[in-house]
Each structure stands twice: as C-alpha cells, then as structure tokens.
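ESCALATION

Customer reports they have been waiting on this structure for their group meeting. Please prioritize. Original submission:
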Amino acid sequence: MNALGTLFYTEIMDYNQAAEWFKKASEKGCTRALNNLGVCYEQGHGVPKDDDQAFALYKEAADKGYHEAMKNLGSLYFQNARATKNEAMFSESAKWFRKLQMLDPDSATPYFYLGQMHENGCGAARDMKSAFQYYRRAAKLDHVEALVKCGDFIYSGRGVTTFGREKIESSK
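Update from on-call: job pushed to the front of the queue and completed.
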C-alpha cells in the first residue's frame, strides 16, 4: 500500500490518491507510510496543509525508530523554532538530530543542522569549533550547504585551527 502511495506521489503526482494509500498503509502500522503521510500534511499534498498533523505523524514514526521520520521531525522543529524563536523547539530539534546521528552516522542532515545550532547558539551552546566540526562531517557526506559553510568558516577563520593555534572568535 505504501509503495502504491509512493507511485502516485512521485510518478503520477496524484497527491489525493497518494495520501489515501499512505493513510491505509499507516493504519496497518507501516512507519514509512506514517512518515510519507506526514510529508503530505507538511506540504499540503492531497490533504490540507497541517503542521500539527505532520508533527504527530512524524513523531509516531520516529518513536518507532524510522530514521527518515526523525530527520523530518527534527527539521520541522527547527523550521518552527526559527520562525518563532522558541528555544524549547530548538532543543527538541537538537534531540532528534543527535539521536539520528547516533543511529545513522552516514546521514549528512543531522550534522548540518547541529552545525547550524552550534553556530547560532540555538538548541546548543554557541561554539564555532563544534559548528565547524559538524559542518565538516556533513560536507564529507556530500552535503552541499555544508560544503559552502566549511568554505565560509575557513575563509573567515571561525572555528578552525591555524598553525596549531586556535583563532580567537570575535563576539559578533
């Protein structure tokens, strides 16, 4: 059922049918379908756009150990935290990305988001060295935005070591 929903979503682009198949599969306990239905709610594809419903579906799938749902849940928390300046949401986002980082160390997304959190002091201590290390790990996993961030950090000297001595971070 989830595969049929995926076919309708990605190939045929009939989001109404996709959402229906994802609902049926999620009622049968398919964690991938829960996540996919969450994407439908987050994007407003085949169902009314509803971040609360997307949160609930991602959370249910994430709690069952589905990695993609952990990534989506962490990302949604991060987006909402940034929009509302809500530190508790940043902390929740960081929690999910740290968990995903441990479970799936080859996923670049958690490293990139954790880098952003350390760079900006949102959901994690502001620490340029840690931010750079997270960006560097994501870049090694071919995360394009992380590659750009690493270049920026190296160019500006933030969070990097030069000739064995740490550059002093300005308090800007």
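Sent to customer with the following note: The beta strands are 161-162, 165-166.
Escalation resolved.
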